[in-house]
Amino acid sequence: MTDPVGPLDGLRIVELASEYGAFAGKLMADLGAEVIVVEPPLGHRSRLFGPFIDDRPGAERSLWWWFYNTGKLSVTLDLNAPEDIDRLRTLIASSDLVLEGEPPGRLEELALDYEDIASDHPELVWVSITPFGRKNPRSSEPMTDLTLQAGAGPAWSCGYDDHHLPPVRPGGNQGFHTACLWAVEGAMVALFAQRTLGFGQCVDVSMHAASNVTTEAATYEWLVAQATVERQTFRHAAIRETPPRMMRSADGGSVIGALPRHAREFQALHEWIIDLGISDQIDEFFFLAMGVERGGVQIPDIASDPEASAVYQAGADALRFVAEYLPAKEFFLQAQRRGIPAGVMYAPEEVMEDEHFIARGFPVELLHEDIGRSFTYPGAAFHAPASPWRVAGRAPNIGEHSEMVLHALDEGAE
């Protein structure tokens, strides 16, 4: 069976290697685009980001580079050399989209910025990812993923009920990832306009702004109500304290469940407890039937209606009792079967071993010929048959495709 063709098949993207935009390039490569990542002759500096395979540092052994550059082609060009600047200009002219995270002003100095290229190629889509935007007064300020998350707001909402403890940094390059997701969305809209209207445009992504508008309720609560949300352990930051949702299971694991509010959820929990034979162990079990009879509870009523408050609290307590009665995975599976949203807290290796994730192809084996081994990668985050997404191949070695790509350009120029 042949691999499905991704929705971006036939699209050529030139990516100027940058840790800011690497995830956006990966996503579009996984969706079928030909992504050519342009590196300096010795490779991009992110190749030296750890950790490294077998704890042996090397430009071809960085797990950071491996993950963020799957499915891409690598071309090396020296942007301090006029002939390579000309090659890059020719390469860009052959593409549909440019993705870059260069410091503001850097490409302008080389006459390689959007305005320089678009005059000759008005159909080109250009996506720029920078800390504060291309023309922002703060454009020259230094930034890390940590300072980005702190300054833009998400760190304020991440932490524990005990506010004597400091906020918790969102891990895993979330500031970079958030910006890249907005960049891909902007790129898709611009590409649609390119195809339907015939012209390109520059998509200017501010990483700071992207994180700020991705703070759930925090930003708009402040802007609209001048109210500040408070951190809560493993649940959304909010103005008012909400009931805990993370629960300890019978086997010592951790699970999370949506507290019942609707009649069908109270009904499902009521039947589940009866089937488990533990209804006599829950003191306020009868409140679940009341939740069904009254058609559930509304959030505004919980603070003002004693009965609604009692029903809601009883549902939370009953769900916690069930969680403590069952092993973590069994709680998760039974809840899902009954239509009760629930999750189990997995360690990374447990995700890769779970039969559900395996069945839908989430773990992907990629061969690294130069190392002589295959490695397991995370695959598509969701299953979308109409828009196939697959990890097409390992990340490229330094300049692995220079000869192929540049030779084709030279032949085209002739």
The second-level CATH architecture of the largest domain is 3-Layer(aba) Sandwich
Q: Bin the helical content.
A: 25-40%
By CATH reckoning, the class of the largest domain would read: Alpha Beta
Strand content: 5-15%
- Structurally, how many domains make up the residues? 2
Global morphology = elongated
Structure characteristics:
alpha/beta; 414 residues; elongated; six-stranded parallel beta sheet; three-stranded antiparallel beta sheet; Rossmann fold; 13 strands; 2 domains
Describe this structure in words.
- With 414 residues, the protein is α/β, with parallel strands linked by helices.
- It has 2 domains: 12-215 and 359-413, Rossmann fold, CATH 3.40.50; 254-344, no CATH class.
- Helices cover 39% and strands 14% of the residues.
- It has 17 helices and 13 strands.
- It has a 6-stranded parallel β-sheet with strand order 3-2-1-4-5-6, with helices on both faces. Strands 9-10-11 form a 3-stranded antiparallel β-sheet, covered by helices on one side. The chain has a two-stranded antiparallel ribbon with strand order 7-8.
- A hairpin with a 2-residue loop joins strand 7 and strand 8 (235-238).
- The longest helix is centred in the middle third of the chain and has 24 residues, at 174-197.
- It is elongated, with a radius of gyration of 26 Å.
- The two termini are 39 Å apart.
